[in-house]
User: Fold these one by one.
Assistant:
Number 1:
Amino acid sequence: MNDLAPLTAAVTAPAIELSRLSISFGELLAVQDVSLSVEQSTFLSIVGPSGCGKTSILNLLAGLIDGHRGQVTVAGKQPAAGNAGIGYMLARDSLLPWRTTLGNVCYGMEIRGTPQAEREGKARHLIDRVGLKGFENAYPKALSHGMRQRAALARTFCLTAPILLMDEPFGALDAQTKLQLEDLLLELWNTERRTVVFVTHDLAEAVALSDRVIVMSSRPGRIIADIGVTLSRPRSVRALQKDAAFHELYAKVWSKLEEGLTSRDH
Amino acid sequence: MTIKTIGGHLLFVAAFLFFWELMAQQGQLDPTFFGRPSGIAAYLWDGFFVNGKLWRELGYTAAGASISFGLGSLAAIALGMLFAAVPKLERLADPYLMVLNAMPRIALAPLFLLWFGLGLGSKIAVGCSLTFFIVLSSTVAGTRGVSQDHVVLSRTFGATPRQLFFKVTLPSAVPVIFSGLRLGLIYAMLGTIGAELIAAEHGLGQTLAYLQATFSMDGVMGILVLLAMLGMSVTYGMARLERFLLKWQ
């Protein structure tokens, strides 16, 4: 039984662990004293007013910035740019305009050294799943916003990384397209259940997608609420729009966020 | 262009040439200064199809322009890329390049003639010196215009500086480099012909200077027509190539 111990430890170890984390940019304190432990296979959202440091936390996890105090562990390691355990999806689709959809979906795998034949097969499969079949050879200029973000989703989900970081990926989309892409994201996520940290300022989006919603205060960002979302899975974001339990949770998150905003005024 | 507009243009040009010919014939427009359409046509016909002398001159000019374009732009792109990779080098070299670029390069022609002789060498030197700077500055501008989103994305994937350069910086700089190359080609021709005008044994520029000195205005006008055609066809070819290479734009 003894040789099983490390294995069990690995399974139960949190995917991401923040302990008393503060992030500052020069004089400016962006994030203050944040402790957070994200279990594996959890879909966690961070919501908060703009400037609360939610993107900074994501960038720190991705190893893009430094200047923090406190402990940070991502997949058992210190954060570092290019960590193969992490897939990062930016707010903008960031598709390379000189690459076709297929080339763009392959880009992440290409950088991470996936063999050519394997990455093409995988990319075609994901392109199919995100609904871009037939657009493999189209350049980004020919794609709509929604389609571009679909391609970015495919690029992210092609990576083998067990942790996905998403920074308001649907922030710039219109309401209809947004609902479609949220459902697509849930569908993709549901098959593998990777750990996701999803940053957004859209509370409805956070509640609909997540297992857990973290509410942050305005600058310097602190955690003011940690709310478990008990809605059953698999979910349909569109169906949730008419669900009473969903609206109840939404109201709860909203009142927490409101508290955070008003507590700052005194 | 529709058949109708092409027809309109042809009609206009024909009318223009007709009146020119007419006025030259009646002495209102002195052919000693302006030449005449029939004379220009006869000169070009002779030059290309009777004695064939113009082919050789055209060849010299085309060789000078294309070699200076090739060498000048290759060197410029290489240096521009090096600057992108080592920004410190650019800061060091910048004041010197600025001084050299500010100088009217055609003024270097007498010096280059002394160094490289009357032949093709001096023409290439002048053409290169003109092409080089224009392509260099567009290459530098191109590598600077890289989208930060693309850089951040590549970094999260773990791109090495080498991968970042070849997969992001270089392709995103290509459109701007191309606009520099288009200008560079025109400058290469300008440099070659300018140097030929000053002193040469061959080339359209030398022919032009000779014809002007001997008051053969039909010849001068003929060469000018030829140069305009040459310039137009290289610009057209370049635009085609650009459209092919940058079809993603």
Note: The CA atoms of residues 39 and 228 of chain B lie 18 Å apart.
Number 2:
Amino acid sequence: MWAKAFERKESLPLPKVWRNHFNDLRPPVDMQLQGTSSWINLLTKRDHRVPKGWKAGSENSEAH
Amino acid sequence: MSQLRDLLENSEEKVFTAEFPTIDGAGMAKVISNVERLAPWFTAVNATDNPAAHAHASNMSVAIALKAHGLEPIMQIACRDKNRLAIQADLVGAALHGIENVSLMTGDDVTAGDEPESRRVFDLDSAQAISVAHSLNNGVYLSGRSIKPPTNFYIGAVENAAAPPLEYRVQRALKKYRAGARFLQLQICFHADRLETFCDGVSKATPALHLLPTIVLLKGAHQLHFMNDKVPGIDVPLAIIERVEKSSDQREAAYELALEQARHALAQPQVRGLHIADFRHDDTLVRLMKDLGRIPQPTRQPSLR
């Protein structure tokens, strides 16, 4: 799946900064949003919500 | 502290790990006989989690048995079969039994196995699962609920240096590093140039991600054909297959190939040792270890915490 995503982002005319987002560590998908409107979730920022414990483990170069 | 962590983080010594055979019906006798075979040569062994999407005795049960019989486990967790609740339960349960090394991976798709009609889970991907394990080390479940005291996992992952898109493999490894992984067991690689490029890329990015390339012990060309045709992410160049196939002694040719690959891998930057997958199940494993200059370690005492 990620290999397909990689190929797709390479083939699209995206700015470099957008391409590099591919390397970001993404939070897990919120399954509560299944069946809801992605546009409404984007505008209300509902899709920005992450689990409370997510930050503790993300992007930490001093990890155990 | 796990011996694996101690050696990788605090020494220059080469570290050898191995794939522990899957357990189906032969009971604890098979576990014990393999522990006796592997313990003198390996710092830790992988307790696999339904490898290649085939069901076997569980990762947790094998890891507990390994620890009980004195061989340090690296408990693998694949995201294919478990959601985030089950993965966290596996991790905290492993900590309960004193299992300190974990390796988190996405896992082969169900179509690679013998029950392709199974439901896929993939609630987390490998980097997210690594991050969740790291959160537990910081004393927090993904929900935010605290764990006191926190877990103390030495977190590993896997990567394939030889599968396309090659230009992204180093970035993907570094993503796992940023998520919390500190060692990477690399998939079997039959392209020396690709392994060199990968190791070079990782070494230029960080000195703190330890690499353990996999070396596979095979019986002959038929197993090379099988890996090339059936195992996801593995490509065996025709020249390598023909080198073994046209030899008058295929077993010996396959061994020489493995020894050559092992020496090449150990010479790469950032490589701290090897991970061995033995599909021969004969005395070749000992021969390889001796040819690489390994000295058998005294067998450790069983450890039940």
Note: The mean pLDDT of chain A is 82.
